[in-house]
Structure formats: structure tokens, C-alpha cells
Amino acid sequence: MSDRQEPSDHFSRFGLPQRFAVDEQLLTKRYYDLQWQNHPDRFVNATDEQQQWAVQQAAAINQAFHTLKDPLRRAEYLLMLQGLGDQEEHRHHDTAFLMEQLALGEALATATDQAVIAELAARIAALNNDYYQRLIDCLENAAWKQAAESLSQLKFLAKHQQQLLQLELADPTR
Fold this sequence. Notes:
The protein is mainly α and 174 residues long. The chain folds into two domains: 10-69, DnaJ domain (Helix Hairpins, Orthogonal Bundle), CATH 1.10.287; 90-170, HscB, C-terminal domain (Monooxygenase), CATH 1.20.1280.20. It is 70% helix and 0% strand. The protein has seven helices and no strands. It has helices spanning 10-13, 24-38, 48-69, 71-81, 95-110, 114-140, 144-170. The relative contact order is 0.10.
């Protein structure tokens, strides 16, 4: 099966253009089509090499699908294709952003009142929406470094969302 041409990236695997906006219905349809065509069960009577190829294809299809299906993973993948892989440790956030994150973290760590928790949840949701829209705008305009910064900011917020979820789960009245 080594004579088969491997797709150069996840987007090519599904016949999609390399961009953030993805037709999710088409992505899902092509995923099921590719899974059906390459499922290892279809190769039970094939050579060992062909069976191994089918297993590798099924794994690659799954990885590509889960990457492209999730917006943040898709953004991260697009940035990786542009040579801006995980540079989290090299990213320098502005002081205002870092101070805001510190304040949010402290507020979440000490929040016990449900009204305060609800207010923090609304604030985090609004910030998440703002940074997500900024990410989309940057990706659509090929502003890769700014997109990487926005993605990094969204990852910061994801940590706060996890803290918030833990607070909400800890409250038996919710």
C-alpha cells in the first residue's frame, strides 16, 4: 500500500481548504466516508502490510477529524501549519491581560457566594467570546502571530473556566 499518496495535512485528507471556517456537516460526512473506505475490518483478508496500512489510516483519519472538529485545536493546527507551533512559553502577554487573569484567578479561588460566582461566569464568558472572535478575525486575515496570541489568551481563560466548573460542581444547589 506504499504506492498510495498520503495527504499532506488534515485539511487535504478531507478535501477541505486550509482555513478556520469549516463546513462541519461536510467534514463529518467525509469522515464517515473515509472511515468506511479505510476501516481495518474491510482488510481482514488482505496482506499484513495492507492490514497495517488500514490501521494507520483509521488512526490518522480519527486524529485529523478530532483536530478539525474542535475549533481551538483547528486554530492551533492552522498555526502549526504556518510554523507557529506551541510557543506558549515564548508568548509575552501584555501586562493588562496578565493582571486581569491574576485577578480572575484570585476571585475564583475565594468565591463562595453564588451571585459572585455567577458574575465571574458571565465575565469569563464575555472575555471568551471576545478573544474567540479576535482569533477568528486574525485567522481569516492571516494575521498569524496575533492569532497565536489570541489562542494563548483563550487557553488562559480555559483554565479559569475549569476553575469555575469545579466551583459549580461543588455547589449541591446547582
